[in-house]
Give the backbone structure.
Amino acid sequence: MTTASDTEPAPPLVLTPYLFLLPAMLVTLAVVLWPVAETVWMSLHNFILFKPRNVPFIGLGNFWRLLHDEVFWLSLGHSLVWISLVVGLQFLLGLATALLLNQSFWWRSLARSLVIIPWALPSVIIGLTWTWMYDYNVGVLNDVFLRFGLIDKPVAWLAQPNSAFFSIVVALIWQGFPFFAVTILAGLQTISAELYEAADIDGATRFQRLRFITLPAIADVIATALLLRTIWVANSLDVILVMTGGGPGYSTYTLPLYAFLKAYSGMEFGYGSALAIMLTLLLLLVVFIYVRRAARELDQ
Amino acid sequence: MKRRQFIQAAGATALSTPLIMAPMVNSAKAQAATVRWWYHFDNPQNTPNDLIAQFEKDNPGIKIQAESIPWGGGGDYYTRLFAAIVAKNAPDCAMVKLSSQAQLLEMDALEPLDGHIKNWAGKADISDNIWNVNKAQDGKQYYLPLQYVVLYLYYRADWLQAAGLQPPKTFEEFLAAAKAMTKGDVSGFGMRGGGGGHDNWAPFIIGNGATFAKGGMVNEQALAGNRFYVSLARDHKVTPASAASDGFRQIVDGFKAERTGMIIHHIGSANELVTALGDKVSAVPVPRPANGKGWTMFGDESNAVLSGSKNKDAAFKWISFLSSGGNNVAFNKLTGQLPVTTSGASSWTLHPKRFVDASAASLPLAGVLPDSPKTADFARTVWPTSMQRALLGQITSDEMMKTIEAHYNG
């Protein structure tokens, strides 16, 4: 007995799709895979930038060192709190803003444009702006709070461990909430008005409309935005670097900032690379979920 | 001419042109050297274009390609320089500081300049003190001095006078002055606990007898000096509450806003402070221990020729041009620092005389941080982190000094 596969000739190898993909693959190889491979190579060596003649291979030595490095664990803890607070609060503020901007009012177009401004500003400008707003001597926040009697003497916002951390969190929430607002607003505009009309006829309250129509309809948008923003916030260090440089002490150290300082201040590119790879491994979980969701959406 | 003949002629011309031009181009290349020079100015609106134009006019065979590199507290500049050296794309010459000389030597990146300097006419116009400070540990001269500053103490002359006090000379007088000026929302001393603050701290620690040799940061004088400095914030409360995070901009702006009575910085801030405060601000050398010599930071800046340069002679011509007489004066007018030439210093008018005098009076105390590869990380990370932790009470003053000792000698 013969089967179809025994008799049919093998399909010819079609190269055309691969040729079309080749430029993108080459670019990806050059700007993503090669630097990643080099980072892995550096993480396995005691690579100090100003000692290029002496780069001994130390295997997993850098990873062993970071497991015993209290600043690594401190930075990791800060990163987890940082991501949860920043992403969570950006989302809530972004959702509220999107719901407001989805209402009808005469200056809605202007409001939608204005809300983008924090997102459009460079991070360094945002860091500097907030640094001076928080400034102890000449900052506008202290001035306003004193005038309104909210404080009785100026507060050194960036010089105390707790206030420094949360001051930066506030700056980051301000910077990032427009991303959620705009993304969720786009999702809201895809919801059919008929659903709300039906809900009105059924006597649904505002909260029930939000709970049973709005949120389920934009759940996919929210999930994608949360995953993307988690990756970005976890990797971001620019605003912290500008506002406190990690200080006072280690109060505002996060994992990417620690990796950056080890590499670019201590010139320990080997150890800095190991820290960066550890962060990558932790983020791979989030990336994995994101890629699975993206693939599922493509299949649909 | 027929079409076929025209095409043949044009083709022959096109093919032969590179052959004819090649010797001419090569000859021009042999004559014109392009010198890549990295520099950084605090005020990016200032450019060295006039100096370059003058140099290129005097030296027709040399082109200067000046590249302004972001300073970023030193970290940005040196990371770029080190990366360029490793990538074999370093400039021919660059502005450099002594704190990075050991790292650059470790990388074999510096060209010894002794031979060039010996035959350079401008050598005698730079004082022996400045030559000696810039000499490397191996006795060779890799740096050609360009500008300098010395850290001293700015103080509010009117407030001290009102308190019936003289400008402080000793640690005790400094504390008394700081206490006298601390009133309400005014603090006596604008302490710099953020980046770069090690040079405000060093006069109280090295000046009191600390050294960077083994055990030198944990000897009794070193520990006592640091206890005194930390106590200014923690016990005596003569510093702003923001001291732990204040950097250069914050201490200068706090002083200008009349929120502090004394700060430590160099002549680079003098004109800005005088514009804001006029005659109310003056300067003296940093305080010293009652029975000691004291110490302050010599803020150096030199040019170096990089060893990978293919235009070393041309590069030296350019950097020696910048360190010569009137050119050095013109250069320092762009940077706001002080000329290294004796002739330039004698005719210096950019800053009010009292600040030039305070700089000169501080020179006998002036020194530099150790010529060690560890110094850069000490200044950028180890010191600010441990200082801030000590100011916040997360570690003791003595534990801070043990951290610094371990960094250098652990």
Observations:
- The two ends of chain A are 39 Å apart (CA to CA).
- DSSP finds 15 helices and no strands in chain A.
- The domain at 44-299 of chain A is CATH 1.10.3720.10 (MetI-like fold).
